[in-house]
Amino acid sequence: MYQRLVLVGNLGRDPEMRYTPQGTPVTSLSVATSRKYTAADGQLKEETLWFRVSVWGKQAETVNQYLTKGRKVLVEGELVGDENGGPRIWTDKDGKPRASFEVRAITVRFIDSKRDAPASGASSSPAANGDAGEAMASGEDLPF
Fewest C-beta in 10 Å: which of 1, 43, 72, 134? Predict the structure, then answer.
């Protein structure tokens, strides 16, 4: 059996890196994906889905070093389910039920170029993008 998920979106916050007890780096990302559509009543609507992404190993260190909130990324990975195979269900501070999708990243590509990135202290370089796995440093739009 096999599954693969591809997300293109923006980081909702700065990456957070930690280390496992064995010393393996793990970086957590919050990625928002959006789509616009016209509803049956003719209104233009926008739908945003949030994904929690974990990046492991050397790629986790690179992602943590060069990505910041608002940067555009392409994440290729596997959907991770809870013990029942579904999304993680939780209750927010207002008592509303929520669900989040979790993805284990295989590849993270930096989509926006340095000049397109939101203003921040971190910047990207081609060498850093290469470490992140076949990164796209050109800033060109994806063909889909």
Answer: 1
